[in-house]
Q: What sequence folds into this?
């Protein structure tokens, strides 16, 4: 299952790292504690709309841009069969799947975003999306579980 807070945190981290800025720099500019910003980026805490807007402002990004990225990632994940449902309970089936394709269940792309899903365990899946920015050739890598 995809957790929205993880996708949001990964999108924020990708933007911050793309600017080669530290957590300290962004937390100071957004007036949020470094530890709390770290927890948001790791997907452990879900930021309020006010805090998310402050972090986006500190990153020089529009809130709507960030939410669009998150929405696109979640929309692609929803189109992939089995991403939002639980895995089989039989460990033998899960082990067979993992040994044949190393746990990567599916990859899909719309030309701008590619999403792959790796099932790490029956309760943990890693969603990896790669986005090509329309104005740059840089790639953002976002992971969520």
A:
């Amino acid at each position: 299952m995809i957790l929205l807070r993880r996708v949001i945190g990964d999108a924020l981290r990708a933007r911050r790292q793309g600017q080669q800025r530290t957590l300290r720099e962004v937390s100071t500019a957004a007036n949020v504690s470094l530890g709390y910003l770290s927890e948001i980026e790791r997907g452990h805490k879900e930021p309020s709309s006010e805090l998310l807007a402050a972090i986006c402002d500190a990153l020089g990004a529009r809130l709507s841009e960030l939410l669009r990225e998150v929405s696109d990632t979640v929309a692609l994940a929803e189109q992939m069969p089995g991403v939002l449902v639980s895995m089989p309970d039989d460990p033998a089936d899960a082990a067979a799947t993992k040994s044949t394709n190393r746990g990567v269940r599916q990859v899909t792309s719309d030309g701008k975003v590619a999403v792959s899903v790796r099932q790490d365990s029956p309760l943990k899946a890693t969603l990896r999306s790669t986005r090509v920015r329309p104005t740059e050739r840089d790639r953002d890598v976002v992971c969520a579980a």
Notes: The CA atoms of residues 86 and 122 lie 7 Å apart. DSSP finds six helices and four strands in the chain. Residues 85-102, 136-140 have pLDDT under 50 and may be disordered. The radius of gyration is 16 Å.
